[in-house]
Model the fold of this input.
Amino acid sequence: MRRKASLILLALAVFFATMSPLLRWYAFPRLAKIPANQYQDMVLEAKDATLLDYGTMKARKVPEVTMVQTLKGNVEASEKIEKTAGKDVVVWDGLSYVQGPDGKMVSKIPERYIFDAHTQEPVHATGEMVDGDPVTREGIEFKWPFLTEKRDYEYFDAQARVTAPIHYEGTQNFRGVEVYYFEQTIPWTKVPMPKVMPVAGITPESVAKTGTTRWYTTVRKFWVEPLTGAPVYGEEIHKEELRGGSLLGGREKVTAFAGHVKMREDYIEYTVDMVNSNRTLVLLLTSYLPWGFLTLGVLLASLSLYLEARGRRPGDPAPEAAEPQPVTA
Done:
């Protein structure tokens, strides 16, 4: 009976020891993915900002500029792209909406971001765009990969339509969560006019005829929880200018927007809580279950050996050898 129990325990030990690396290196990369129907929004604010008054074409100080960023999973589009891509794909239809202190629209820029649900690498397909302009992204945007590493990444800037390094600057503690801090600087770059302008009658085409151009620079900062790859907080030191042309009445340039953009407090709390919840799920597959199964396998193997040793008591008499029988012709 002991021998039978010993063999059962040994079989279970082998099973759990085998499951340990399979969970971490086989199951996790396939199970960890962004759901295709995910929806999220975020509100950011720039206090004491500078904003262009298009009525007078002069920059003025305002108490606050608000930015609302939404990302909505497009399930129908992702399923269509998956048929040819041969992988799990997420399509995010995004909108960055900026409004002044009076509640009026300053700008709104739609965006479609298509990426691999597991790795967050961009997937190039029809419909990938920023403000109606087709783009071919390189690098990440909005989210880092699961199990983010302490290194620089390539990050896509939607305003400039360029990809540039975003640098790992160290590990920090943000409200009880260990995070990696990343920073990216986009130097002054000529960028397209938004398709939708804040004043009726002004269009990108009409501005282009005046010879006036739009320029942009930013310092982008993210605090990223490394297991989930999700930013728990973000900031931008953002500046825009209109330069040259008859629209400015002979002036060389005028500030269109300048401000230190930060996440609103209620969205910080919500994001930290959500990331902590998702972090537990990632830990379950990468640490808790693999190490738990390995430990259980070792314990079961030890118990199996113990029962096997107990089954062979040294005091028991050795079995007698059978006497040889005479051979008859």
